[in-house]
Amino acid sequence: MKKGILLSSFLCCILGAFAQTSIEFIPTGGYTFADKLNFNSTFGRIDAGFNYGGSFQFNFNRHIGLEVAYNRMQVPAKLYDYGAVPGDKPVYQTSAGINYIMAGPVSRFPIPESPVSLFIGADLGAAIFTPSPNSFSSNATFAYGFQAGTDIFIEPNFGIRFSARLLGTAPTSSGYYFGYWGDPGGLYYTQPGLVQFGFNVGIIIGLGHPLPEYHAVARPPHPPRPRKYYYY
Fold first, then answer.
1. Quick check: 24 pLDDT over 60?
2. Residue 170's pLDDT is what?
3. CA distance 153 to 18
4. In sequence order, what DSSP letters do the residues of the chain get, joined into one string?
5. Rounded CA separation 102/58 (Å)
């Protein structure tokens, strides 16, 4: 009897550790790969580099949530003449600050009796570009994103997130100057669409109340159907 009670208590503790909370703060960091930008007579390259940021995720239940996220990277941006080969010096180089402010739904798929949850999500928002050191202005444009990954919960209010994320911007006719005033090598950074892919690792910090578990409701058995008997 005592062994059964102890086993039940242990299972309740383990299953409770797989729970999520209604509000989660998830600081993240990772690596973003390089991207190439095509212009009229030149092409640009946004170097690979590290990114950092975080998100608040508001969970309506264990399967659906809303994410509000921020992500930033500061990497070299280089401009080349067409025909340049690897090893050639760029026509112009600066440091590009790229800030994504996004929001969108996140769908979780908890694995039964496991601390692991798979998730996918989509985001819409804005990308804000801040060139440096010749930062005459900043510019914002429409941005979109997709993500997928795995959450591993150690406790109800603590876990680890591994994710792959794609962030992009829509092409726009507006642009701002990346170079010196009057320099023909100035890079109009926001004219082509930017697409960036990377991997991130985050820490899940639960701030809200634990979400209730789903329990299957047993349906009452159907009463037997009356049978008709025929006598001859």
1. yes
2. 80
3. 6
4. -HHHHHHHHHHHHHHHHT--BSEEEEEEEEEE--EEEE-SSEEEEE--EEEEEEEEEEESSSSEEEEEEEEEEEEEEEEEETT--TTPPPSEEEEEEEEEEEEEEEEEEEPTTSSEEEEEEEEEEEEEEEEESS-S--EEEEEEEEEEEEEEEEETTEEEEEEEEEEEE---S-----S-TT-TT---TTSSPPEEEEEEEEEEEE-SPBPPPP-PPPPPPPPPPP------
5. 14
Tokens found for residue 98: 């790229």
At 230 the pLDDT is: 60
Better-predicted residue by pLDDT, 4 or 200: 200
Q: Which residue has the tokens 């701002």?
A: 176
Q: Whole-angstrom Cα distance, residue 58 to residue 171? A: 31
Are the CB atoms for 48 and 73 separated by under 8 Å?
no
Do 123 and 106 form a contact (C-beta atoms < 8 A)? no
Domains and CATH numbers, the chain: 23-206 (2.40.160.20)
Question: Around Cβ 150, how many Cβ atoms within 10 Å?
Answer: 15
Structure confidence at residue 220 (pLDDT): 67
pLDDT of amino acid 101:
97
Q: What's the first-to-final CA gap in the chain, in angstroms?
A: 60
CA–CA gap between residue 65 and residue 142 (Å, rounded) = 22
Q: Which residue has the tokens 């060139």?
A: 131
The first and second tokens of residue 35, run together, are 């991207």
Token pair of 217 as six digits: 């409701």
